[in-house]
Amino acid sequence: MHTELCDRFGIDYPIFVFTPSEKVAAAVSRAGGMGVLGCVRFNQPDDLEGVLQWMDANTDGKPYGVDVVMPAKIPTEGTAVDIDKLVPQAHRDFVAKTLADLGVPPLSDDTARNEGTLGWLHSIARSHVEVALRHPIKLIANALGSPPKDVIDQVHEAGVPIAALAGSAKHARRHVDNGVDIVVAQGHEAGGHTGEIGSMVLWPEIVDAVSDRAAVLAAGGIGTGRQVAAALALGAQGVWMGSAFLTSAEYDLGVRLPSGRSVIQEAMLAATSADTVRRRIYTGKPARLLKSRWTDAWDAEGAPEPLPMPLQNILVSEAHQRMSESSDPTTVAMPVGQIVGRMNEIRPVAEIIAELVAGFEAATRKLDTIRDS
């Protein structure tokens, strides 16, 4: 499992893993892949600075990247208080009633309230880029497509390549025209923000559209070495994963239950590949989430329409915090892909990576026997 991207980034395997957990990101890099830390949860530059200092000290000199979110539209700037005024009271009332109906307890008095993730704003995302460039990062990815041109120029001047997610060949061409170096072809099966086209169709379409100008990573529904082999067979130079590492032993976000697992992990372990939905209720843009009593409430008759990004995130941010810190897995609101049906145990990151590599090697050996027969 070796492609040009391995040589470009100095990694053993072309496995790029997006994660909000610095412990998972560092473990991926130590295991030979590229850990990519999601920055959107950091409202203050100093918070991100501290975590990246930790990454520098805990990656054994191996390369890592960061993922920022730069939405293109409405509203893009302003303080939390300014934007907060744009959230309708009727939506707030619905969220409060839903949490009460689901029996989700309030946060304790000594818990800091999450009043909205400002990382969805351009100004905060730009600060994430500035902080990241003070560290030895090897990649900056933008979860919502091409960053603004001045940001692309800033990152390139620092000698760092840029990746951007795309859900169609049209989007991929636009990203490359804008100066993006790596296109993440993210199929419909993926967790989080995802488009309408399935991976098996999308990956070769984007490869054919841009691979002469940019590298392509395949994303969406990847959780085994066989699927990595399929992605490379379809022309990708590597894979971009996320969901499969939510049940890694290093994943440390969310309150731990007596089982030793977080409420998020308990929800994932119980799910099948049919237990996801694609809705706008998480951020305001279509995103694939774990199906839960929370998503059911938003699907019920009388529920309000989700607000545009970033207002929806501000509306539900504390609700997400309350559900993640409760003990009820049936209410969890968490992005995850359809591969969740294969996420059936808690394992160390190194073991997951090793299994991906072994599965890839087994799949390619099988193909060799078919070719030689």
From TrEMBL:
Molecular-function GO terms, alphabetical: monooxygenase activity
Keyword Flavoprotein: yes
SUPFAM superfamilies assigned: Inosine monophosphate dehydrogenase (IMPDH)
Stored Gene3D superfamilies: Aldolase class I (3.20.20.70)
Top-level taxonomic group: Bacteria
A Pfam entry, by short name: NMO
Stored CDD domains: NPD_like (cd04730)
Keywords: Flavoprotein, FMN, Monooxygenase, Oxidoreductase
Protein name per UniProt: Nitronate monooxygenase family protein
Organism: Mycobacterium pinniadriaticum
